[in-house]
Amino acid sequence: MTSSTGRAAGYLTVAAMVPYLSLKTAWLLGGDLGVVQPGLMRTAPFVVGNLITAVMEVVGAVLAVALVHRWGRRLPAWLVLFPLWVAGGLLAPVTLAAPFGFLAGNSSAADNPIDGLEGWVYGVVYAGFSLQAAGLAVAFFLHVRARWEHVFRARLDATQSPSKLQVRLIAALGVLVVLVVAARLFWAFGGPTGLASEVGPGRSTAQRALDFSSASLALAGLLGLIVLVHHRPRSARVWVPLTAAGLGTGAMSCSGGYQLTLVLAPGTPFDAAGGAWFGSIIAAQVVAGLLGAMILCTARDQLVVRTKFADTCQLSGRPPYENAGTR
What does pTM read for this prediction? Predict the structure, then answer.
């Protein structure tokens, strides 16, 4: 891929954000574009929510541009990785679930989370999210290849063993993820327990698909972390479990946090989406994501040391394991 391809990906990602930002801007200015219930977007919860999500989208646009320009490579690593972790966590579940909703033809207001919006709003918004996810993935790949190329070459070091703290954290994470995955798969296949009585029977295919994608990403995140911490299978490419762990922990933390905020927010159509058990599962998902992020940071530090040492040995002509004590 050339630099022109990268820049095209970055700016197409920004273009995919325009419809969403246009809707948010119209609502923040007092308009009712795509709103069935006049004045809905002028209530306090929606004004605050629209403002926050609009700012997040602007940050995403700046990040998309930074990823495909040289000046973006000079940004601190955390300033690139953390916003992308959040973006991936928010976009991945929706991107995986959206095609099922479109195929099922869920366009009526009764199938939507908010009865006050017209069906076409969801088509525009979620199609834009899918394009954004694809564009950011391409832009990030090019950024990593230019800035941290060793990540694609690095392999797991089977000589390393996980620390006792990592083993305990993985065990605690496993318990939480099993609970979350079981509950969300139960809802995905039509189970009503834990959902409000008026919500359970009327859940759309798209909403069930979101449960399924959330469960899948949580499980992928757990498996990715297990591989990274235990360094098995031997000599596997690092970027595969690293990607799974990043997307999985981000989806649990960020998407779960977004859902939990909507459920707890008073005066919105979401505050009666489920009972206390539903809220507890979503809260467990958020805790699992944050715990997974902690484990990922410890594993990442080990990988950074390992790959930098390997690159140094390659340049000096020494075997990577000639003096393991200096790693």
Answer: 0.83
